[in-house]
Amino acid sequence: MSTATTGLDPRKTRSIVIWTVVALVGAAGWTMLALSRGEEVSAAWMVAAALGSYAIGYRFYSKFIAYKVLKVDKTRATPAERLDNGIDYQPTDRRVLFGHHFAAISGAGPLVGPVLAAQMGYLPGTIWIIAGVIFAGAVQDMVVLFFSTRRNGRSLGQMAREEIGPIGGAAALLAVFAIMIILLAVLALVIVNALAGSPWGVFSIGMTIPIALFMGFYLRVIRPGRIAEVSLIGVALLLIALVAGRWVAKSSWAEAFTLSKESLVIWLVAYAFVASVLPVWMLLAPRDYLSTFMKLGTIGLLFIGVVVAAPSLKMDAVTDFATQGTGPVFAGSLFPFVFITIACGALSGFHSLISSGTTPKMVEKETQVRMIGYGSMLLESSVAIMAMIAACVLDPGLYFGMNSAPAVLGAEVQDWVSTIQGWGFTLTEADMAAYAKSVEEATLWGRTGGAPTFAIGVADIFASVTGDGLKAFWYHFAIMFEALFILTALDAGTRVGRFMLQDTLGNIYKPLKRVSWWPGLIVSSAIVTGLWGYFLWVGVRDPLGGINQLFPLFGISNQLLGAVALTVCTTLLIKSGRLKWAWVTGVPLAWVATVTLTASWQKVFSADPRVGFFAQGDVAQKQIDTGLKPNGQELTAKELDDAHTIVTNTTVDGVLSALFALLVILVIADAARVCIKAIRHPASVVSHEEPYVESKYIAPAQLFPTKEEKAELRAAGLGSGGGRTDGPREEVAP
Amino acid sequence: MTVKSATAKIWWYVRELTGETAYERYVAHVRKDHPDAPVPSRRAFERERTDRQEADPRQGFRCC
């Protein structure tokens, strides 16, 4: 291309050509996904649509937000530079911090939501994952990270209190606590459903405890701080435990490791209680190293697997359940429930807790919030896309056989098969048994919760590369990978919940605030495990299927936290005189508030007993009152028991949904008051931003330094990691 | 890039990401900003690190 005729310099021309190609690849992916009907589409097109869209979103939208809206300033010193204490405040290489931040935000969430949402077909969920992350999720993570960095790494709760007021702050704090409880219950339920009746799984997950204890001992006594080497030893032991699980499942020990859902609940709650009381070095820290290694490794393998195998998507683009709202996995129509079910991967309120607090204390340069905040979230979103692919490469009959709530399928195996055939899918009892045998599980019927489905999808994809002989191994590998970080989350989450509880109750009774005071520690740990243990128990015993009931509640609460975070961001934009850019977080806020409030409304007020909690309770109450089932038969003693359970559960769930909705309305209303005041009387606004200090630190903004940045680094004698320009130089990256 | 330098880079990244280098960085920090201050032993430093997480579990918390 001649630059003389276009009048552009060659760099610009090259950039236009590259970005046109990227846009075309993404557009081709979307076209194939949206237009193909009746034939199977290759998952490669979904990857193309996702990566093309992410690249454009990152290159253009995140740049616009960083430089036009937030006005990141590379001459301004970050808290890591100003307050560097070599411990929690310290400038950290952007590539390392990206890894830290990504490992902290990504967990089981993006693997579960998309699998459940696949009941409506792959298209609605995929559109939400990709559009949601570009315009809402990644924006939230980056903007929270930016504002927290400007405030010395203050937490979301502190910012809400400072910027909105004590009411907004208290509501935000209560929301975080309630969400934590529901989150832990749902995660634990996923694990229970994946491990029940699976001796292979129970043995290999159980072995992670002695492995972690060994690692903890090694790090504490033998070679303190040698984390990388002990992690490699741990991963090797983990793989041995995984292989050994197969022998155990085939040996006479199998029975001892075959646990019912109820006994798994008791084990899990007991484990989490003990683990959260033990010192961090014994179990939590080493477990965390293991799960981070496994997480990053498996996600990497999965990317390679999907690209190499390029499996076809067998699920329809849009199923009938999307329009009718009669889905067996979760009830309700596409709007709002797809947007509730897929939280992590599109927009996750929880990330705002990581983006404020830990990460902002380590950012070298303000300009890096784009790569770390926005970039990590895009990567997490691509994990959600992988989960969607894993669910959609399965035969739809198998998918629905595994994920349908038991109450929907019927009482006997014949009913299950005929229900699924009635939906138009081909599936026989023998098919289901063959699938179960191929992964060496007793049964796959009703294995709700997403983890087993994801694991089978992963096993399918990996086995198409490595051969079918390893399919069962890959299945259990995937289960282990999810179970490992869910168990870590149960321990860590219980500790955070306990900390919040101690902090709050400490205002009433002083000694509780001291984290080393044993009685306080035990009691508050017991309260927190008791709370999520209650929901877990209820979820396991729920005649209507626990995931079906609890997952919407989890989605609503997570999105609610997102609404709180976006409210804080919007308030901050307005208070700092950026009213004309307030839509950047204001529009996602309006969207997520609409979704959450509609969903809560339907969960509370819907007359459809499949959707509304109270309507469900009324049906059960009527059965108790009359002693009769809808078909006129008398209730058996067990059915009467079930009905009582349903009445209690639906009341608790309904009240919680209403409470969540009230909290979000309270925070938004309080913030609106503050914003209106700020617009009317700009002079009255008090800024809580730390004052400007000039930076003496040089570091590139993006993964790869630009030509100018390279020149700057070279002039200062620094490597590609950057560093200080004053005083003696620290060791820098190779 | 040779295999050796690529391996070195990966090892550098793994050590940084796991936090194995936290002690080295802390020592470098103390030496630079407080040259006369005593430096804790690695054992003591690592103990303090987990104790800190114990006191405020929100540090290093992982998400869903």
What do you see in this structure?
The complex is a heterodimer of chains A (734) and B (64). With 734 residues, chain A is an all-alpha fold. Chain A has helices at residues 3-6, 10-35, 43-69, 79-82, 94-105, 109-117, 122-149, 156-163, 166-195, 199-222, 227-250, 261-277, 284-309, 320-324, 334-341, 351-355, 369-392, 396-403, 406-409, 413-422, 429-438, 451-466, 471-505, 518-541, 546-575, 583-605, 613-626, 637-680, 707-716, and strands at 41-42, 312-313, 697-698, 723-724. In chain A, the strands form two sheets. Chain A has a two-stranded antiparallel ribbon with strand order 1-2. In chain A, strands 3-4 form a two-stranded antiparallel sheet. In chain A, helix 25 runs parallel beside helix 28 (637-680). Chain A starts with a helix and ends in a 10-residue tail after the last strand. With 64 residues, chain B is an all-alpha fold. Chain B has one domain. Chain B starts with a helix and ends in a 9-residue tail after the last helix. The model of chain B has no long low-confidence stretch (mean pLDDT 89). Classes of the chains: A mainly alpha (734), B mainly alpha (64). At the A-B interface, helix 5, helix 11, helix 13, helix 16 and helix 23 of A face helix 1, helix 2 and helix 3 of B.
